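Structure first, sequence second, as always.
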């Protein structure tokens, strides 16, 4: 265990942090990002769920499906789509889905309510 005398140059805030860690308590941070000693750890509340129609990821994927169906249903459009073009489009869709997933901050409501 680290003792206060081991590092005499530490300030009181750092000493309080070390003490709270040595007590096996998870410290709660103040507005400056420093831990507050002898405070219980309070996790952030989960984000409020949103409706499915508020999801950019779902809308993007719905548009991709619609374009894919339109391309398959219209033989005149198929002549413009080579195998390489399908590969590029699939890579683009995967990349955009990953970006949208990283930007996701809220879950979607279950049950349609």
């Amino acid at each position: 265990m680290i003792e206060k005398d081991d590092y005499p140059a530490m300030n009181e805030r750092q000493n309080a942090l070390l003490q709270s860690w040595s007590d096996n308590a998870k410290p709660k941070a103040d507005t400056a990002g420093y831990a507050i000693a002898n405070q219980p750890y309070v996790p952030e509340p989960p984000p409020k769920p949103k409706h499915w129609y508020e999801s950019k990821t779902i809308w993007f994927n719905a548009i991709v499906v619609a374009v894919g169906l339109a391309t398959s249903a219209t033989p005149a459009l198929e002549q413009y789509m080579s195998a390489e073009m399908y590969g590029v489009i699939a890579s683009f869709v995967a990349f955009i889905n990953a970006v949208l997933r990283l930007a996701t901050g809220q879950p979607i409501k279950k049950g349609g309510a």
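Margin note: Residues 52-103 form one domain.
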